[in-house]
């Protein structure tokens, strides 16, 4: 296992470089689309980006760290994805606390569900009470997964019913996003742009609300990306902009996977960008290499509906690091700690294809 953490700046993970070099020397040329191993190592640049994140409210600082339990396995997966090329790659990402920051200005950042204000304090309070009841159950280590799944279905069903009963409007969604403190991790826009250049689809899986996520993307990134699809709970509004129902099956934290692809809609269609290519379900399923981004162990199931060949899983362990590190380290190929920026993932993605044509 390699754990890299630091005081400031960018540090090289020496142990990983040695293991990568040893591995690549044993691979046949047909499996490595680069001229030589030294060239690959130079391009790969297994770099740990260390950014000190200031907690403005309490004066504390957290250091971003990365944990790689099996550098050799990671190297093998990188070589396999590079060999297949970008046409076989797709990215599957969770939204809340994965693409968005866990901490914002020293406080817990709001989720796409949590930022919503219906314009009806009574119903806002009812949804908050549901959160306080069910949220501890979601992360309880003692509740069996079958029972926990039923509890999540119960929670989401009650919450959606309150949104309808409380008269949610789309105008309220736009105002809620504008007034919220939700923020993307540094480097998310750069990641999206890098993937768009290569026509690599990004499937954002969320147990939240698709309409809110799309509004967050509009207001916070100020740009549409033609390769982005949202797989989340989608609302139906009437001609007056009032919520009347939800489409399809309910997606919660424990059932997000590609079996829910039929619920995804290309984001550019919502934003009026109709000139770019779309990615239908069939074309996405032919992309059998996956980069998966999540912050919850349940996020690993987002690729369950895809018969993938190679998957690199990246986990963001934002809080309770001491108690959860062993579990996350054994579950994900790479784990970023303490609300890390997305810059490490950008660096990784840039090495999943050859820029010099080799």
Automatic annotation (TrEMBL):
Enzyme class: hydrolase
GO biological process: nucleotide metabolic process
InterPro entries, per the entry: HAD-like_sf (IPR036412), HAD_sf (IPR023214), Pyrimidine_nucleotidase_eu (IPR006434)
EC number from the UniProt entry: 3.1.3.5
GO molecular function, one term: 5'-nucleotidase activity
KW Hydrolase (keyword) present: yes
GO cellular component: cytoplasm
Pfam families: UMPH-1
Domain of life: Eukaryota
Statement: the UniProt record of this protein carries the keyword Transferase: no
Catalytic activity: a ribonucleoside 5'-phosphate + H2O = a ribonucleoside + phosphate
The entry's keywords: Hydrolase, Magnesium, Metal-binding, Nucleotide metabolism, Nucleotide-binding
SUPFAM superfamilies reported in the protein's UniProt record: HAD-like
Family: Belongs to the pyrimidine 5'-nucleotidase family.
Descriptive protein name: 5'-nucleotidase
